[in-house]
Write a structure and sequence with these properties.
By secondary structure, the protein is an alpha/beta fold. The protein has a domain at 5-65 and 170-292: Rossmann fold (3-Layer(aba) Sandwich), CATH 3.40.50.150. Helices cover 39% and strands 14% of the residues. A hairpin with a 5-residue loop joins strand 6 and strand 7. Helix 3 (68-89) crosses helix 5. The chain is globular, with a radius of gyration of 19 Å.
């Protein structure tokens, strides 16, 4: 099923990776075999997985996130999309409701999914668990009010599009787990296909301002633990990060790991190229360098 890339994810995230899809696809297309399974352990808005599915660049994806609200949202979208849309349409988008959802400690998967969606679509920068307030402020005197990102028809269309992908078997599972558990669990699925045709895409929480952006942020130990695992694994993987010194120390200069800068308009350059604007970087153990081929305009 071909879907428009710009209208895939029902969620909006700070630093959305949607525009990185062309660069990541360059890496995928340059390396055989093509992925039968694409695993995203820090899925968040899942823009990369959904974008690659929309382009038929990957056969199927597995989504996972440690945040129970995010994991519940994707579980409800993939398994009970029509019912989720029906409940979403009943939501009142007001500051009072924002306060209510913010304080709520939901128990059911549906309530967690609705809290995730409501706060993501009504909070500054889509931040669910950080310190941000409602769009438009408490007085709602801004040009942009709390409901400006809550177009129910558009959200419903996106939820149902993703639900159809799941019904077609393109989204094989949704996990609520740490990245270690996701990698272990995904190994069971990979064994059903060609294990060499599985790619893990990891987009860990930002380092800069992490405490303001995430309820469950990574600390330095977490970043180093992830780096140690990736340096030793035989699985194929792609990692995206903000180009912070800690990240560069963990991955730069290792023989089997390649580094690519991603510029603001999201083309990819080799790490030894002249400096370019932007602070995002891709690391991968995929061996073939797409930047040595004839460049494709992205």
């Amino acid at each position: 099923m071909q879907l428009p890339l710009a209208s895939m994810s029902p969620l909006r995230y700070p630093g959305s990776k949607r525009k990185m899809v062309p660069a990541i696809r360059q890496l995928i297309d340059a390396n055989e075999p093509p992925p039968e399974l694409f695993v995203e352990p820090f899925c968040g808005g899942a823009s990369v997985s959904l974008g690659l599915l929309a382009q038929d660049a990957v056969e199927r994806v597995l989504l996972a996130d440690l945040d129970p609200l995010v994991a519940a949202f994707w579980y409800e979208v993939t398994t009970k999309g029509e019912a989720l849309v029906k409940d979403m349409r009943k939501l009142e988008v007001t500051v009072d409701e924002w306060d209510r959802w913010r304080k709520m400690r939901p128990r059911s998967s549906r309530s967690k999914a609705l809290k995730c969606l409501f706060l993501n679509r009504t909070t500054f920068s889509g931040i669910i668990g950080g310190r941000a307030g409602p769009i438009g402020g408490r007085a709602q005197e801004s040009e942009y009010t709390i409901d400006c990102r809550f177009n129910k028809d558009a959200i419903a269309e996106r939820i149902l599009n993703v639900h159809r992908l799941a019904k077609e078997g393109r989204i094989v599972d949704v996990l609520s787990s740490r990245w270690q558990g996701t990698l272990d669990h995904a190994g069971w699925y990979a064994a059903e296909y060609n294990p060499k045709a599985t790619i893990f895409y990891l987009d860990p929480p930002y380092i800069e301002k992490a405490d303001r952006l995430y309820e469950l942020a990574f600390d330095e130990f977490d970043h180093r633990q992830l780096a140690e695992h990736l340096r030793g694994t035989t699985h194929r993987w792609i990692l995206s990060y903000d180009a912070e010194p800690l990240v560069l120390r963990c991955y730069r200069g290792l023989g089997d790991i390649h580094e690519y800068r991603v510029v603001h308009h999201y083309t990819m350059t080799g790490a030894r190229s002249s400096p370019v604007p932007g602070r995002e970087v891709l690391f991968t153990n995929l061996p073939n360098d797409p930047t040595r081929r004839e460049r494709t305009a992205l």
